[in-house]
Amino acid sequence: MKFTTSLVLTFSLSLGLISPAYAYTGLGKNSVDAATLKRYAPPALDPAIARQIEAILDVRSPGLGFLTPNGKKLFFGWAATGSSQVWRIDGAQRFPVQVTGGQDSTSMVGITPDGQYLLLSRDRQGEENAGLYLQSTQGGAVQEIQHQPKVKTSLQYIADDSRTIYFSANDLRPDSYAIYRYDLQTKQKTLILAESGVWWIADALPNGKFLFGKATGSQSREYYEFDETTKQLTPVLGQGEKEDYRAEFGAHPGELLVLTSKFDEFRRLYRYIKDPVKDSAKDSTKDPVKDPVRGKFSPITPAMPMDISSFDIDTTKQRILYTVNDRGYSRLEAIDARTFQPIPLPQFPQANQVYAGTTTHDGRFTTIGVETAKAPRTSYVYDWSTQTLTQWVLPSTPEIDPNEFVAGTLESYPARDGTQIPMFVYRPKQCPQTCPAIVHFHGGPEAQSKAGFNRLAQIYVKAGFIYVEPNVRGSEGYGKTWLNADNGAKRLEVITDIEDAALYIRANWQVNGKPPKIGVMGGSYGGYSALMAMTKFAGSYDAGVSIVGMSNLLTFLQNTAAARRLLRTSEYGDPDRDRAALIALSPITYVDRVKSPLLIVQGANDPRVPVGEAVQMQAALEKRQIPSQLIVFPDEGHGAGKRSNQVLEIGHTLRFFQQHLQ
Prior knowledge:
The protein is an alpha+beta fold and 662 residues long. 18% of the residues lie in helices and 32% in strands. The strands form 8 sheets. An 8-stranded mixed beta sheet has the order 29-30-32-31-33-34-35-36, sandwiched between helices. A 5-stranded antiparallel beta sheet has the order 17-18-19-21-20, with no helix packed on it. Strands 1-2-3-4 form a 4-stranded antiparallel beta sheet, with no helix packed on it. Helix 3 packs antiparallel against helix 4 (455-462), helix 3 packs across helix 13 and helix 9 packs antiparallel against helix 10.
């Protein structure tokens, strides 16, 4: 779609770029004044609604966690105290013991091979500038490795000696991640890579060879071998391609395992040899793809009309586990890392989602998560040596009968060009009259609504709503054409999927000739989708809730965290080259069209979508005297993390829809 100068000017005037109702720069709590935070502070919630939310938040399951090498203790994350903390159980289905505390969200990111220490990540008030910490597996004080203001520090690798770790941090430049080596005994930090770019350690071998990854876009990556002694980076894969590669070292010398959709519509797992002439391993794969520049790719998983969403090879290079995404349902598969032959796994016929967690350093134990439509995840540990499966952690459903939960059904609706858009639909068991519908758009946009247990869906179904989760074009799990359909200015061609959902529901879900009222909601990109639904497609929905959503793609790209800007620009477009398209795709451009009530929820510390995005939208609505409400959490970031704030966020959203749709 082409744009003329006059059209850009028209959009600019509509945006209020010449005389905006509110202008902001930067992100975080310091980018907004105290008076604004006070004005939009979360109001009290009706106790009856709060109780409903509390009850469903109690339906939960602890994280899959990390098992100690001897298989006797499991450390996992759990938000039972109101914030995410680390817990321990000393045997299957034993009583859990809390090992970290406080209000700051703390998660476990690793355990040393000798089982002596935990590596922890701790965030402050949703800033997502987490620090890295160390704690003994016996408990006790948490020791800081690195936690700096406005710096994100992330564990990358733990060496076999259980003494040396590697982490990344954007402490040298806000838009780049350096790689450091750290000695747990001497507390010495050594910089080993200071190149510009978003870097991480994809894998490492005992001989000291590293595989470094570098993001070149929201989906594209390059890979390099790194020699720590010489500090040399050797290009291996993806340079100059802008391809979706995900790689780890394989079991054979000179081999990489690569997940990519380069050669097919769907992601498939390949064995990649950069120099086929030196490949001494017997190639048991079929249909190799020869690339004179890149080497040889040989598929090691079957061709399927569905994506492999993820894979992992254990540290000992014995087994490869991969997850197949079948239209939003997941299953786990395993193959031998040397022969690529299938390995049997326990079966879960009633499961909607089956996926692997972590594998112990010696390759013996793997945690497995199993999720059904009517129960939160159940956690298991699989012992490969004895082929036994043990349930370790039990989900909890206090004061609720799980049989009352409703399973979602996979349905679809037609877009205006005839494309069928998949959606999961949750319906009340009884609906004596026309039930109002809530359409929830997922974030990302490169994410996917999936089958399985959905707490939010159960809240709305119990309250008398039909709950709908579409996977519009741009979502994961339906091939690369679907995934890339909304990149840059192409989003203008498919953004109508948002309106088409409402048009279909209103026309086809009538009862006795009466169409349902329809609400729209979502978080992050889903929040942006809700704003587009209420502005550009005003009148298609009767009420909307946007949670941490972007209101202006230009100001969003200018003010989001520097390290994220490159990745988001590749998805939404360049602020200079694609300026006209970004304006046309910004909800605030169409603020004059808003016809129905709108609720906006935002965290002041959000490093992804700045709080200014919400405030400027609310200011534009207030200037035009359009019914709206803004709630800003001063102690949250990209969505509510603390239980008390979750109750307020979900409760006010439910209250809002009950007021305007029922």
